[in-house]
Amino acid sequence: MPGGYQQEGLPVPSLGYKTLMYNCNALVCVYTTMLTAAGLHYFDIFPLTSLIDNFGHLMTVGMFWGWFVALFVYFATVVAGEPMRMSGNFIYDLFMGACLNPRIGKVDLKMWAEVRIPWHILFFLSVSGCLKQYDAYGYVTPVRISVIGFERILLTPVLEHGLHDPRNLALSERLVSVGLSPHCDYPNRVPAARVRNAFRKPGICTTKSGASWLSSGTSPEFPL
User: Fold this and answer.
1) Distance (Å, rounded) from C-alpha 222 to C-alpha 201?
2) Given 73, 191, 193, 209, which is the most exposed site by the fewest CB atoms within 10 A?
3) CB neighbour class for 43 (10 Å; exposed up to 12, middle 13-18, buried from 19)
């Protein structure tokens, strides 16, 4: 979807410390998707109850499509001669991934496959279940409503707080400094002391209210 704030990411060691551009349009996309789905359901063009009615079919296609994307990215990376962190064990390498930053044009496949598709499917399946329950019984139980509420609460932060968020940018830079960032090519075992020292510095891991995300100086031992 066009539009969105263009944010330059952190330097990627595997790309010669090149930076990638990210199109931060997630919130626009999610609200547009919700409004479109509501319109299609209201005008009976695509009733959302059909999602729960065809749950098995949709999940089967989703799983096959997920495997197709994973295999395509893996073999395309190997054929291109650009695999990273390969162990020689096919199952392990396929699970961990051969490409650190897979993209098709400007589309970040990691964000698309891990957030944009599954979170939306989960949310709309829950909405579909509520609508189906209302059609069958004339009411929606509090449990159903709470599930949608929690999913909505979880969905927005996942889409909202990206690298363009100053707090997450500072956190990412701190993780890079201790070798814990997913952008690191070889995340070896990192001494816990380095992790503790990295998070002791002020101005990081705080919420909008100023509360600390991590207790200063009391970071646990990381089993890395």
Assistant:
1) 18
2) 209
3) exposed
Please name which of 52, 13, 6, 19 lies closest in space to residue 181, comparing C-alpha atoms. 13
Q: 83 is written with which tokens?
A: 């695999």
pLDDT for 102-145, tens place per residue? 888 888 888 888 888 888 888 899 999 999 999 999 999 999 99
Q: Is pLDDT of 73 > 90?
A: yes
SS (H, E, C) the chain: CCCCEEEECCCEHHHCCECCEEEECHHHHHHHHHHHHHHHHHCCCCCCHHHHHCHHHHHHHHHHHHHHHHHHHHHHHHHCCCCCCCCCCHHHHHHHCCCCCCEECCEEHHHHHHHHCHHHHHHHHHHHHHHHHHHHHCCCCHHHHHHHHHHHHHHHHHHHCCCCCHHHHHHHHHHHHHCCCCCCCCCCCCCHHHHHHHHHCCCCCECCCCCECCCCCCCCCCCC
Report pLDDT digits (tens) over 41-50.
999 999 999 9
Q: Can you tell me which residue has the tokens 């997920």?
A: 66
C-alpha 72: how far from chain center? 20
Is residue 4 left, alpha or beta, with left meaning phi > 0 and alpha meaning psi from -120 to 50?
left
pTM above 0.85, yes or no: no
Residue 21: CB partners within 8 Å, gap ≥ 6?
A: 6, 7, 8, 9, 106
